[in-house]
Design a protein that fits this description.
about 15% strand; Aspartate Aminotransferase, domain 1; Aspartate Aminotransferase, domain 2; 7 helices; single chain; alpha+beta; four-stranded antiparallel beta sheet
Amino acid sequence: MKNTQQLTVIGNLKHINFKIYYMKSFQYISILLSAFLIMACGETVNKSENATVKVEENGIEISSFIGEYDKVLVSSGLSKAYALPGLRLGWLAGDKDMIANCWSYHDYTSITSGILSQKIGEYALGTEIRKKILDRNRNLLRSNLEIMQKWVDQWDGRFGFVPPKAGGMAYLSYDMDINSSLLSERLRNEFGVFIAAGDWFGMDGYIRIGIGSEKTYFEEGLDVLTKGIKQICKL
């Protein structure tokens, strides 16, 4: 790829924004990240790809957009698709000059990641291990997606659901007279189960559920979620 630098570790850069702005709304996070990148790069960039695109449900890996044109800037890491969030490793790939400028901002946030994290990350990204990790996670998501669909079906139209083609999140619409933030708060406080509210993303009447946990844990969580919704919404 001409004039590009493939890999730049940015460690825990994102926590700088999260600490300050988390209390506002999740919908601002991508805006803040884009603003930071514009500040670092000095021009408008198109940020493409997602940390979960390597867990496509059909097992066919999507080609990277990197190198397609000069303003593509890809950010990813080991937290989502690789299920290794404890390593706190990520990367940016893009135009060589953009990446060089981002490095200067990186130096103000985290000089380096842990040497053990780097070693484990290098091992995880080896060809054979990487395939094993992604295959395991794809199979897990495929199984949980079927469980999620059955859970939705049991509500007889009260929930709507378009199964994702990749990634570990299910985004559901619902037909109940309750604000999504209030529903999320009550489920968390009264039943100990967490869902993301749609109005955090500017879309009330929706909820987001993670489907990337172990099967038994996921099924237990859905049971608690069912109980909580029925009691809160008096169904």
